[in-house]
Amino acid sequence: MIQENQTTCSGSKFKSIIYFALASRFTPYIIAILAIILTLSSLQAGLCLDDYHHKLLMMDSSIKLLDSPIDMFKFFSGDPARTTEIMDYGYFPWWTYKGIKGAFWRPLASITHWLDYIFWPDRPLLMHVQSVLWYGALAVAITFMYRRFISIAWVAGLAALLYAIDDAHGMPVGFLANRNAVMATLFGVLTLIIHDKWRKGNLRIGLVAGPVLLAISLLSAEAGIATCAYLFAHAVFIDRGTIRQRFAAMIPYVAVVVIWRILWTYLGYGVENMGAYIDPLGEPLKYIAAVKNRAPFLLLGQWALPPSDFTVMFSPKYTIWIWRFALVFLVLLIVILIPLLWRQRSARFWATGMILSVLPICATFPSDRLLMFVGIGAMGLVAQFIYIVFDKTEGQLKRSFWRIPALGLASIFILVHLIIAPLALPVRAATMMPKKILDKMIITEGLDESVVNQDLIIVNPPLTFLMLQSPMMWECNNQPMPRHLRILTSSLFQPVKIYRPDAKTLIVRPTYGFYVHVLDALFRNKKNLFSVGDRVELTGMTVEIREITSSGQVSEAAFIFSTVLEDPSLRWLQHKDGAFVPFTPPAVGQKVVLPGGNLFRQ
Fold this sequence. Notes:
The structure is a single chain. By secondary structure, the chain is of the alpha+beta class. The protein folds into two domains: 27-47 and 107-432, no CATH class; 442-594, no CATH class. It is 52% helix and 11% strand. Strands 8-9-10-7-6-13 form a six-stranded antiparallel β-sheet, covered by helices on one side. Strands 5-4-11-12 form a four-stranded mixed β-sheet. It has a three-stranded antiparallel β-sheet with strand order 1-2-3. It starts with a helix and ends in an 8-residue tail after the last strand. The relative contact order is 0.10.
C-alpha cells in the first residue's frame, strides 16, 4: 500500500511538473529557452551559399551578384548584360538563361544582415546569435498565440513546444540567409495575436497595428503572405461577428497585400525564367500543376517522415513513390482527424490555415525550410489530437472504432515530433547537410597561387549549384582565384561519357542529360529551351548544343576551347570517389566514362 501511494505520488509530481512547464505563466519563456538551446549548434555553422553573396557585397569583390546592402536577395537581375558578365567569370553555369530574374523584396531582413557585416563582418558566430534570438522571440510569440486559440492551457503549451522543437525549423535558424523566414513568421504570428484581440474588442488599435505588422512580415520575406491564410481561417471559424463584419475586418489586410504586390512589381522584383521558381500570378497553369506535385511532399514532411528535402536528393523515378506514399498518408490522416475537426472550431481553424499556407510555398521546390507557417496549424492540430486521444475526460474517441488507428497515429506523432524532432533539430540547425557529404560536393580548400593565371575546369561535380559555393568561399577567404571557372556538367548518380574529336574539343554526354537536377535547373526554365546548333560564347570556351531529347533536355554538348586542352593555362579537375582530383583529357579520338558522383560511397 505504501509503495502504491508512493508511485501515485511520484506520478502526480511528474504531472505537476509537466503541467507547470506547459501551462504556467513562465511557459513562453521556458519554451523559448529550450528553442534557443536546441539551435545553439548553429553558432558553429559559419557561412553557406547565399551568405557568401552577402559577404562579397560588403567586400571589394570584382564579381558581385548583389548591388545594395538593403537589397540582399536580388540574385538574378533580369539584365542580360549583367548575367552575361557573371556567366563569363563562372559564378553562373553556361546554361544560364540571360534573361533570368530572381529578385526578392526583403528590405527588413537585408538590414539585419547589413548590420551583421557592419558590426562583426568576420564573426559568423555573432551573426548566428542574432538568428537564434529571432527564433527565441518566435517561440515566445507562438506560445501566446496558441493560448488565445486553444482553451486548455497545457494543450496550448504542448502545441508551442511541438512548434519550437520542430526540426523542420533547423535550416531557417542555421542558414543565415534564411533568417528572413523566421522574421516573417514572427511578425505574422504577432499579426494574428493583435487581430484576434481587436476582433474580441480588447484592442482598438489593432485595426491599425494588425495591418502594419502584416506589412512588416511581408517586407521580411514574401513568405509572410501565408499570414493571410490564418486571417482568413480566423474570419471563418473564430470570429463571432456577422459574415459582413468578419470579412469587412479583412479589408485593411487585403489593402496591404495589394499595395505590397503593386510596389513589388513596380520596383522590379519578381521571378522570371527560373527553373525552380514559379510566379503564381504570371504562370497560373504551371503553378496549379506544381501545387499538385509539391504539396503532398511538403505536408508529409511536416506531419511525418521523410523530410520534404528528400525530393531534391533523388531522381524522379524514386520520388514518385514518396509522392504516392504521401498521398495515401494524407488521406488516412484526414479520415482519422475527422472527429477532432468535427468537434472543435479551433481545429478547423488550424487545418484551414495550414492547408492555405501550403499554397504559396508550392511556388518553389519542396524543402522543410519552407514550413514555418505550415507548422503553426499542424502543431495546433497535433497537440489537440494527442489530447483527445489520451486524456481521460475525452473518452468518446476511445469507445469508437477509431480507437486503434487514432492511438497508432498519436503514437507516430509522439515519436516523430516529441522524440525524433528535438534530437534532429540541433543537427539540422548546425548544417545544411552532413559535413561528410557536403565536403564531397565542393572544394573547401583554396588552390595554389598558379591558379590565378589559369581557367579552372571542373568536368563533373555532383551538383553544379553547390559547386558554385567554392569560388565564392575562396574569394571571401582571400584565397587565390582562377581567371575563370568552367563547370561542364553535374554527375549526381549519372555517369558521364566524354569523347575528344580534336585537339581543342570535348564532347560531353551525361547519362540523363545536363542540368536535370532541380537545383541545377534553377538557372533555366522549360520555356527557354536550347535548340541543336545553339552556341554559348564564353571567354576561352564555346559550348555548342549537339543533341536534345524530345522533351527539350540537352543530352549532348561540345565544349570548344580556344587552346589545346593540354595547355598549362587550363587546369582540369574531376570528381572521383568522393573527391576532386586532376583530370587528364583523353587523347584525340579516344573516349572516357566518368562514374556518377555517388555521395554515399566511402
